[in-house]
Amino acid sequence: MSLLAPSVSAVVVAVLAGSGAARAATSGSFDILTMNVAGLPAILQSNDVPGDKATNAGTIGSDFAKYGYDVINVQEDFNYHAYIYATDNHTYRTATSGGAAIGSGLNTLANFDWIDFTRIGWDQCSDASGSDCLTPKGFTMMRTKVDSGVYVDMYNIHADAGTETGDETARNSNLQQVADYIDTWSTGNAVIVFGDTNSRYTRTADNIGIFASQNGLTDSWLRLERGGVVPTVESLCDNPSTTNDCETVDKVFYRGNSIVSMDATYFNYESSKFVQADGDILSDHNPISVVFAWTLSSSLRQSDFWGGPHGTWFSDLPTLNSHSKPKASILTFRGGSRLDSVGLTLTDGTTFVHGGTGGTQAQLTLGASEYWTSAILCQGQKSGQTRNFYIKATTSSGNTLAAGTSTSDCATLSAPAGWQIVGFVGQDGDEMDQLAFVFAPQ
To answer: How confident is the model over 332-369, as pLDDT tens digits?
Structure first.
């Protein structure tokens, strides 16, 4: 996975500030917006939007700043990207991947930081009724930090357009590709997919329902505006739309996980907020806003992350979710010049091991009333990538276990009072790239 997020130093500050997990909020809310900003060059596509595209892009950016949505996904952000960013004021923003024919047109503007960001191109495209293969569209994924220990994997998507057979075949492949990626890279995680799917439920060949059937995601429009009933008759929206009953190709899907529950509490086509001074539209798409309420679980929580976004994603959460009172009985680490692996065995014999087989093994057996309560992690650079070099675990009885080599870039990640460390989430390979801890009550 590529890293286009803020520098490691920004992450260091965030993790240190949030390492005292007991101070974290246990509930909250945030809002998101998805908007296709019609940023293809005017000479190629007018998008049936009056006015000058550069001026319109500047207005869009001003509106983003005015309304302050917490996370904004944009599509078709091609040749007028700089005008949007010039008038927007969000703290965290992705760098453009280029104009039309070069970039994907996918960008995110946010009030929240993220630790991972990657761009993925489509495996399949179609020019059956357009020029979808002209520019490398696809999707992005970022692991967004909503609060200390509260992470949501947010996906931005722009699927193949058109209604010819070739288009529907390509779009079906696009949606399947995202669903499969979620299964691999977001296992155990809260997820929001929002963007331009170019799909409707009445286009059955697209299989837009795959996010529900394969990934367990809920469509916020179906949930709040349709009572969960999938439409069988196409209902097109005006632009600007004066109702939320109609269906657009722009959609917002979501799910929580065993750490944080999420529920969509508000859905709206924000068309009336995004207009030119004379009332004309700014885009040929109706922007969508959704408000999410979230609450932390009383049985499982997690720390912030340390290390770099490399290697393969892993999560012990799906397994831990089936345990009523997990407790670590044995800690097993491997390390040498760097941290090679981490592992623990629960009292019921369940074992978690992540990383490689190098280094020297160190092991600690915990007493019946002894809990793993905190850990020091140190990171460093290896082959141009950030990895975890060192771990030192401390138990409720004051016993310690260490592996690897300490560096000057360290953080202490502690379970909240009355909680314990019982598992891991992160990314690994031959060594430990990225690591966070799962907490359960003592």
So the answer is: 999 999 999 999 999 999 999 999 999 999 999 999 99
Given this model, what pLDDT does residue 44 score? 75
Q: Are residues 272 and 326 in the same domain?
A: no
**Dihedral sign computed on CA atoms, order 206, 209, 211, 217:** positive
What's the CATH number where 413 sits? 2.100.10.30
Per-residue CA distances from 336 to 308, 339, 407, 435 (Å):
19, 7, 13, 17
| Residues pairing with 74 in the sheet | 35, 107
What is the predicted pLDDT for the residue at 60? Answer: 98
User: What pLDDT is stored for residue 12 in this prediction?
Assistant: 40
pTM equals 0.93
Q: Give the CA dihedral 400, 401, 405, 407, nearest 10 degrees.
A: -40
Does 1 map to a domain? no
Boundaries of domain holding 252: 8-296
User: Is 393 part of any domain?
Assistant: yes
pLDDT the model gives residue 37: 97
**391 and 285 part of one domain:** no
Outline where DSSP puts E strands in 270-327: 288-296, 301-302, 306-307, 312-315
Taking the alpha carbons at both ends of the chain, their separation in whole angstroms is 36
Question: With contact defined as beta carbons under 8 Å apart, do 337 and 356 qualify?
Answer: no
Distance CA 221, CA 268 (A): 9
Tell me: do 351 and 239 sit in the same domain.
no
- Write the DSSP assignment of 338-382 as a string of letters: SEEEEEEEETTS-EEEEE-S-SEEEEEEPPTT--EEEEEEEEEEE
Mark whether 288 and 307 lie in a shared domain.
no
Q: Does residue 316 sit in the same domain as residue 419?
A: yes
For the sheet containing 328-335, what is the strand order? 351-355, 339-346, 328-335, 360-365
CA–CA dist 177, 179 (Å, integer): 5
pLDDT at 23: 56
Q: What integer pLDDT is reported at residue 161 of this predicted model?
A: 95
Same domain, 383 and 271: no
Q: Single out the residue in 296, 311, 338 at which a domain terminates.
A: 296
Cβ neighbours around 175 below 10 Å, total: 25
Angle at 352 between CA 346 and CA 358, to 5 degrees: 130
What stretches in the chain show pLDDT beneath 70? 1-24
